[in-house]
Write a structure and sequence with these properties.
Blueprint: H1 4-15, H2 19-34, H3 48-65, H4 69-83, H5 90-104, E1 107-114, H6 121-133, E2 137-144, E3 151-156, E4 159-164, H7 165-185
Parallel strand pairs: 1-2
Antiparallel strand pairs: 1-3, 3-4
Helix pairs in contact: 1-2, 1-5, 2-4, 2-5, 3-4
Amino acid sequence: MFLPRRWAEAFVNSLDENAEEAFGIFKILVQWINRLPGSQAGSAVFGAAAAEQVNIILKKAGVKTGASESMEGASRFLTMLIGRNRLRYSPAIITEIQKILDVKNKKVRVILESVYPAGEQENEIKEIVRKRTGAGEVHLENKIRPELIGGFRLRINDEVIDASVLSRLRQMEEKLSGAKQGAVNG
């Protein structure tokens, strides 16, 4: 069983204070690998031979750019994933690394789904989330969802607050269906 959280923890712990920078580099390297001819989500790039080729390319690039510790850490992690045929799990690993770094940096990611853009309310929402979570930084992404009819849906990490008209209509529908079933059976 593959556990992306463990790989993510190993990545962050091995780089400590350089983890944020190395993470950015790692994401770029994964995108580069996935753009190689014949590669689909890293599935065509695997094994010790491929890892060695990628390592050589990255070392040459590092020599030209004066590679930092972050670049070296990201490169080592990428070649290890390739060598162990785990590159296909990189999207899950990236998600887990982001979660770990967010907790470490007291950052909360919030997705606001609403019919209209948040506009002036964006700062108010950020402040409410900041107070509720104790976060140092709140990153808010506003997604327009006309199907909600009105109200909003707020996703704070893994928590969902659904105050949409669509949600309330569905709840009413369930209650009416339950009442109708009770009347038919009773």
